[in-house]
Amino acid sequence: MDIKNLITFIHVAELNSFTKAGELLGYSQSTVSFQIKQLEEELDAQLFERIRHTIALTDKGREVLSYAHQIHQLTKEMENQMHSKQQICGHIRLAMADSLCDSLLGEGYEEFRRKYPGITLKIIAAGTKEMFRLMNHNEVDAILTLDNHIYNTEYVIAREEQVQIHFVAGKDHPLCQRESLSVKDLIGESFLLTEKGMSYRRILDDQLAGMSLEIQPILEIGSTRLICDLVEQGNGISVLPDYVTDRGVQEGRLAYLNICDLHIQVWKQLLYHKDKWISPQMKSVLAFCMEREFHEKEG
Q1: Do residues 107 and 251 share a domain?
Q2: Which helix (H) or strand (E) holds 256?
Q3: Phi, psi of 156 (to 5 degrees)
Q4: What is the spatial distance between Cα 197 and Cα 279, in angstroms, rounded to a whole number?
Q5: In Å, how far are 98, 117, 206, 250, 271 from 113, measured between CA atoms?
Q6: Is residue 299 part of a domain?
Q7: Could you report the per-residue pLDDT of 168-203, keeping only the tens digit for each?
Q8: pTM
Q9: For a designed S-S bond to 32, which of 22, 54, 171, 187 qualifies (C-beta 3.0 to 4.6 A apart)?
C-alpha cells in the first residue's frame, strides 16, 4: 500500500473535495481520483459516496480514515526518530478570540521562536461561530475559544478552564466606593466594550436581554488592551476577563465592581477536529498554547 495514497485520502476526507486536496498537495484532480480509486481497489471497499458534485465518507471510509491517521502518525514518528536532530518545521493556523491574542503572543512569543524557529504561525481573530466554520473546512488547525462551554463529539478538547469575568472601573471612579451594585445601577454609565456578538460580549447582552435591559456603549472595539487603558484613564467602565485586568487591579490602577445580580460564566477552550492529524509542529503549538493560556494541568 502506497503511503502517498493514504495521505491523499486523509486530505480529501478533511477538505471534502478532490480538487482542494489536489491543490493542497500539488496534484491534478485526475491524479487524486486515481490514488483514491487505487486505494479503494486495494481495500476492496468504497471510501466515498459521490453524489453529483459532493462527496461524503462511507462507513468504511470513516473506519479507514481512523487507521490512515494512525499509520500517517506512526510514519512521521518513525521519520522524526530517525532524524531526531532535525528541526521541527511547518506552518500552523490558529483561530482565536481577539482578546486572547495578546496573552498568547505577548511575553512568551520570543521563547516560542527560540524553541521552534522552524514553525510559522498564522493567527486569525474571529468570533466563535466563524472559528468553527474555519475548523470544519480545514482552514485552521485548531481554535482557542472564549465562550459558553462547548462539547461536541466531532471535536477534541485539548485543554479547557473556566475564566472569571468582572465589571471593572478606574480606581477613582465613584462606583468603586460602593460595596454592592445591581445591573440597573450601571445602565446609565459610559461603557467601553468589545464588539457586539463576540464571545463574552454576546453572553453579557443575552443575559441583560433576559432582564429586559441593554447597554449602549460609547465605544466598541476589539482590543481589550486598549479598553483596559481607557478604563484606567477614567473614560468609562467595562466588562473584561480577569487575565486582561489582573495586573491593573493588583497595581491599584483598576478596581472590580461587585455586581450582585449578574454572573457571566465563560470558558476558555483549545479544540481541534477529531479527524485532524497531529503533526509534530501542531503538537508543539498545542503545547505552547496550553502552557501560556491554561493554569489547570491536565488530569
Answers
A1: no
A2: strand 254-257
A3: -100, 130
A4: 33
A5: 21, 5, 40, 30, 23
A6: no
A7: 999 999 999 898 999 999 998 999 999 888 888 899
A8: 0.69
A9: 22
